[in-house]
Specification:
alpha/beta, Immunoglobulin-like, eight-stranded parallel β-barrel
Length: 496
């Protein structure tokens, strides 16, 4: 029998990293006459960390705000967001600093527009966003242009954001990816954190509130020093640290996306940022993230593999200590060219065609289903999990309000592989467990992804199907988990 990897999750970042790397030791070959066995043990007596209620998030370009995408009165965006639960929306991206002009109330855009302007945002757009936030009970971060800096316009936008959105504005963001400004032509060669610091502080002075998030840097492997210095210098002025991360290169496939190596690198790359926030007792969001940058990878970012990845990635990073993830995307036609010539592959939500785009009617892509499964874990505290397996399986447990325990099991092998027999010691007394399944035809399928056999309908709702009921015997249960599938197991609910 091949050696079985053991994952010990104890809450500290270093241990979370060791748990991910521990998955890499699953080498060897099982006996032909012995099916793979997986055991999962939940330690219900030692909760740690937190799974916040708004850890699910979406991220969009600033241009979506200017073209009127966020309209609670049209289409199905409100039910799609509400189906995900209470969440967080971040609006910024490359278009913020590159081509978005703020125009104050009562003013007309200059005619002609400056050469660099492609998008215009006004107080009416902020009011429209406010309607969306009120309807969904989400909160937001919204960017202020620093690539083309104008102190008067920045101050007016900041006043409008706070006056209109109120507490629904979690934080303003001064600029996007400042570590990349030189490459984008916004600053001269030699511009680095020492030059950025006074510029950011000038923006913060105009915002005039400590509800500011930053520094919103890209490329986590090279920007740890930026985040560390920023958190140390500005911790009294900000309420959240933000950073970006994309998990795989553009040449990767679905197997790479779901590999234990990718899971380990996700933790490794962002640990410096997490440590920097923790050192200042600040929350931290990965407020722009997805599978691969520049629009994603056809057959990977838009496939069933992205659903399994999004579920696992969300819980992995929340367990490590991050307060939320915002999956980047756009509300245009699925797979259509983006503003930068790339294609809209990785987005969780998009329109099936041009007519639906104009009607603001969107479809849920595979990644959305993974986010939705992660949100089914609810909020609460993580519980330590001991996992022994010879397959690409991960496990998480959360104890929520009123003692309810939710357990996520994610099997990330190819769907053609055999099912995995799982023995689960839940660590509590219970008679039954409810099991909800995430399934798809194959890792590369772009259609047919379902939760309990149901798909999100045109109205933006997921039809409710009864959960599978599994009997618990003396604190243990067993089930067969299909390869390339996931479940959320819930204990402590009524047995109606």
């Amino acid at each position: 029998m091949r050696g079985r990897a053991r994952q010990w999750v104890r809450g500290a970042v270093a241990v979370a990293l060791m748990a991910s790397i521990g998955q890499l030791t699953t080498a060897g070959t099982a006996h032909a006459d012995a099916p793979p066995a997986t055991t999962v043990t939940i330690d219900a007596a030692h909760p740690f960390g937190a799974l916040p209620s708004d850890f699910v998030g979406l991220s969009f370009e600033m241009r979506e705000l200017g073209i009127g995408s966020f309209d609670a009165r049209a289409g199905n965006l409100v039910p799609l967001m509400r189906t995900l639960g209470r969440g967080n929306i971040r609006i910024s991206g490359n278009t913020l600093d590159r081509d978005t002009l703020w125009v104050p109330a009562g003013q007309q855009p200059p005619n002609p527009l400056p050469d660099w302007v492609q998008d215009v945002v006004t107080p009416n757009d902020i009011a429209r966003l406010d309607g969306l936030l009120r309807a969904t009970h989400w909160r937001a971060e919204v960017g202020i242009n620093m690539g083309h800096w104008d102190a008067t316009l920045a101050a007016d936008e900041a006043r409008t954001l706070f006056a209109t959105l109120g507490r629904r504005l979690l934080g303003a963001e001064c600029g996007n990816e400042p570590n990349a400004w030189v490459g984008k032509g916004f600053r001269p060669p030699g511009f680095g954190y020492p030059q950025y610091k006074p510029e950011w502080e000038a923006c913060a002075d105009l915002v005039g509130s400590n509800r500011i998030a930053g520094p919103d840097t890209s490329s986590p492997t090279s920007t740890g020093p930026w985040v560390t210095s920023f958190a140390q210098d500005e911790h009294a002025r900000i309420n959240m640290v933000t950073a970006h991360s994309y998990s795989i290169p553009g040449s990767a496939d679905a197997t790479r996306l779901l590999s234990p190596q990718t899971a380990a690198s996700q933790i490794t790359n962002l640990t410096p940022q997490l440590n920097a926030a923790n050192a200042q007792n600040l929350p931290i969001r990965i407020d722009e993230t997805n599978s691969a940058a520049n629009g994603g990878i056809v057959g990977v970012s838009d496939s069933y593999a992205s659903a399994l990845w999004a579920m696992d990635y969300s819980l992995l990073m929340a367990q490590a200590g991050f307060d939320g993830l915002n999956f980047h995307g756009g509300l245009g036609v699925c797979g259509a060219p983006l503003y930068n010539g790339k294609f809209q592959i990785y987005t969780p939500i998009c329109a099936a065609n041009t007519a639906d785009e104009q009607a603001k009617v969107y479809v849920a892509m595979p990644e959305y289903y993974g986010m939705l499964m992660a949100s089914r874990m609810g909020s609460g505290q993580f519980l330590p999990v001991t996992l022994a397996t010879d397959r690409n399986v991960t496990a998480y447990a959360v104890r929520g309000e009123e003692g309810r325990i939710s357990i996520a099991l994610i099997e990330k092998d190819d769907t053609a592989a055999g099912s995995v027999h799982i023995g689960l010691n839940v660590g509590v007394d219970a008679e039954h467990a409810r099991v909800v399944h995430l399934t798809g035809p194959s890792l590369t399928s772009t259609q047919g992804v379902a939760i309990q056999g149901a798909t999100v309908d045109r109205s933006g709702h997921l039809p409710q199907r009864p959960a599978e009921r599994v009997r618990v015997h003396d604190g243990t249960l067993s089930l067969d988990l299909a390869a390339g599938s996931a479940v959320v197991i819930t204990l402590g609910e009524d047995d109606d």
